[in-house]
Amino acid sequence: MATLGNPQNTIEVLKKYGFNFQKKFGQNFLIDAHILENIMDAAQVGSDDFVLEIGPGIGTMTQYLCERAREVVSVEIDKNLIPILEDTLSPYDNVTVINEDILKLDLAQLAKEKNGGEPIKVVANLPYYITTPIIMGLFESNVPLKSITIMVQKEVADRMQVGPGTKDYGALSLAVQYYAKPQINMIVSANCFMPKPNVDSAVITLHRYEKPPVEVKDEKLLFRLIRASFNQRRKTLQNGINNSPELSISKGQVVEALEKMGLPATVRGESLTLEQFATLANLLG
Ligand code: SAM
């Protein structure tokens, strides 16, 4: 089996199996060896690493991972890709393919079974329609993580690393920055994929913190407050929180907390830092 990561060999495999791309699964396969090498470098995949790959497609990036990592587990939802993966990954004995929806797998259990509960690396060219649930699922599932290196839409990568005062700032920025230090490694042109997506992409590494950078008594409350503030972005924080079905906090309580923080009663969530959200959660908790 020839090495993938270029247009000719990709087309050959697709033809051999009569594979039709499924838009609903966000299938855009990488066809650029240079980008694939760069992703391996960004993720610093080494011979000690256990890597979870989400969405191997025809196994392009999986081949690169198998060459460098100790062990690879790849989770692919599309059953039509499974016979292809058996073929393209046949030279490797350090890979397991699981035909499952990544959002339905118990990842903490998987890390326990396959890696003795030691921290794993996640490396993936993500299906863009579920980027946020995948990232949040990884952080919230208590799976022990070293880092997550993922290809996402460029705009989503921007959202993950900005602070208050920019239009991209939102619940995703705060959630990611609570759990990890984001670092954009490179911007990737739509031409590096087959079929070509409508947007440019970026590779971002999220380096998991051992301890979050802010201290909160009640993590759940912090995230409820964040969601409430950005669900109704144009509303003031006191209205957003008061309207949230997940919270029963009055406008008066919010205003009182804001006063203690030296913030005006009319402030909007989009101007608060992660530290300020943490203080607010501790005052309201
Ligand atoms: N890794 C390949 C590459 O770089 O060429 C393919 C990446 S493609 C952007 C995303 C892959 O994720 C597709 O193979 C798609 O079928 C798979 N996928 C989509 N939704 C999924 C889900 N819920 N669970 C697991 N895999 C999924």
How would you describe this structure to a colleague?
The protein starts with 6 loop residues before the first helix and ends with a helix. The radius of gyration is 21 Å and the shape is elongated. 40% of the residues lie in helices and 18% in strands. Strands 4-3-2-5-6-9-7 form a seven-stranded mixed sheet, with helices on both faces. A two-stranded antiparallel ribbon has the order 1-8. It contains twelve helices and nine strands. The chain has helices at residues 7-16, 33-43, 60-68, 82-88, 107-115, 131-140, 154-161, 171-179, 219-231, 237-243, 251-260, 274-284; strands at 29-30, 50-54, 71-76, 95-99, 120-125, 145-153, 180-188, 193-194, 201-208. 38% of the residues are buried. Helix 6 runs parallel beside helix 8 (171-179), helix 9 (219-231) crosses helix 10 and helix 9 (219-231) packs across helix 12. It folds into two domains: 7-208, 3-Layer(aba) Sandwich (Rossmann fold), CATH 3.40.50.150; 219-284, Orthogonal Bundle (Helicase, Ruva Protein, domain 3). The model has no long low-confidence stretch (mean pLDDT 95). With 285 residues, the protein is α/β, with parallel strands linked by helices. The protein binds S-adenosylmethionine. Residues 25-30, 54-57, 60-61, 75-78, 81, 101-103, 125, 127, 130 line the site of S-adenosylmethionine (SAM).
Short description:
With 285 residues, the chain is α/β, with parallel strands linked by helices. It has helices spanning 7-16, 33-43, 60-68, 82-88, 107-115, 131-140, 154-161, 171-179, 219-231, 237-243, 251-260, 274-284, and strands spanning 29-30, 50-54, 71-76, 95-99, 120-125, 145-153, 180-188, 193-194, 201-208.
